[in-house]
């Protein structure tokens, strides 16, 4: 009797366990389906973004030009938050040299940036470049993409110790021949003839009063930039409704001034990188903030993310002139 009761109890426990398991599976599957449906658009959008940073080679010699190939392609409706890539690579032991722009365009609603970053290393070491994180923001959605970490080896230039060190030979004096003397005396006779002809030409000519030429004004880079702005206004872009072209050429003139006057490639850099360079140059914070606002507005207009009002369009050249005036070395304490 006791054994029968135990068997019935075991059968009841087994049936209860099957019911609980079915209930758990029935609850988990809907939640799993909802989670996948909510996240599938972000997964698809993340696949639509291409990001890579790779070195041209894995091993270099001290003093070589180290080239890293950077590629970024993403939909234009996303706003990009870039990392301090040059600072991170610099902390790894490399010194930044230049940026070669291979492609920086917007085509069919997609932004394509393709650069070659050049660095150099002056010591034998293993450079470990960490993963760099780019963030893409659209509304409430945020995507994160990272480059893969990699390592570059820098080694000293090999020295051939098998070759012997030889003494430098003393210079040998080549004796002159008749050709050398003929060239010398011929040249002296030619000079004497020219001097005699000049003397005959000008000996009886009355002395004329020589008027001093008016001093020519030497244009500074600031003056040249203002002249460029005036030329842009004469093109009449705003009268034709071409405010994108107007904003683009005005902002490029300001970047040209930064590049010529302060020696950094602003035309090839992003707005973030340009602002970082101005900060390094020691500009006052209000000047850096003004430059940031000015260039950011131009970027938004060029990429069709912002349509300025008519008053802002008309005052954009004046804003550029005011920004150049605050950055002019004759007035700015830089």
Integer-rounded radius of gyration = 36 Å
The shape, in one word, is flat
Largest sheet: 4 strands, antiparallel
Strand order of the largest sheet: 1-3-6-5
Oligomer: single chain
Distance between the termini: 101 Å
Helix tally equals 8
- Hey, roughly how much beta strand do the residues contain? 15-25%
Classify the helix fraction into a percent range. Answer: 40-55%
Write down how many β-strands occur, each being a DSSP E stretch of 2 or more residues.
Answer: 10
Structural class based on helices, strands and sheet pairing: alpha+beta
The H-and-E topology, N to C, reads as HEEEEHEEEEEEHHHHHH
Arithmetic mean pLDDT: 80
Query: What ranges have pLDDT less than 50 throughout 5 or more consecutive residues?
Result: 35-40
